[in-house]
Amino acid sequence: MGGNYNNGANQYGHGGSGSGHGHHGNSNYHQQRGMLMRNDRIRDNTLNRDQALQHWNTIRDAIVKIYAQKASSLSYEELYRTAYNLVLHKHGEMLYDNVKKTTIEML
Fold this sequence. Notes:
Number of helices: 4
Strand content: 5-15%
Shape: globular
Distance between the termini: 75 Å
Radius of gyration: 22 Å
Number of strands: 2
């Protein structure tokens, strides 16, 4: 038995598949300060007020289309993701207030 066998340790010095974490061999993970973090979680995912307002405008336009019975062109998956991202980035109160205001205006 020769080759590149490294006694079950991967690039992080942890055991192979028996380490209990299940994602050590996955290239989407890396070690930083002793913790495994997904690469897509490390990037800057802040959402400033202007970006939040752009997301809100997308949702507002969808609400208007729904009340006008023109919802067939909407992607509910996109709308869900947009609302989720607003809440995730601490803009949930703005979203709630604006949905409430827009809904009252449309009635």
